Amino acid sequence: MGKGEEDKNMPKISGLDHVAIVTKDLKESLRFFETNLGLVCTHIEDLPERGIRVAMIPIGDTRIELIESQHEKSEVAAFLQKRGPGLHHIAFRSENVASDMQALTAQGVPFTTDTPRPGAHGCQVVFAHPKGTGGVLVELVSQP
Description:
Layout: E1 13-23, H1 26-36, E2 43-47, E3 52-59, E4 62-69, H2 77-83, E5 86-94, H3 97-106, E6 117-118, E7 124-128, E8 138-142
Parallel strand pairs: 1-4, 5-8
Antiparallel strand pairs: 1-5, 2-3, 3-4, 6-7, 7-8
């Protein structure tokens, strides 16, 4: 496919939405970013259905998302237990998460769920499994 050609089976990615970091202590992690780097957290949100609390720190056109597990069955608890705090995933802006998921599934990319689900700020999100992305958990995010 040459430059300028559009493949209707390709996802419509418009940019980097955020880089997510799992932390054991949200307040402590926020202190580092705010005190040492001069960044400012603009939003903290609990997502009880996923068992997490997230903090968003804008930087340029993207954000850093800090994720804290709220209990041992949260979606990041096993990650935290196995690997400790650190980089969890990268998230790309998608015009339509469901159609982009469909396009990637047709290309053989596996996902962690069968359908998109609610994320922070009322977004729709879905995660491509690291087995199909070169070892990186990739999130697609559509704004409401």
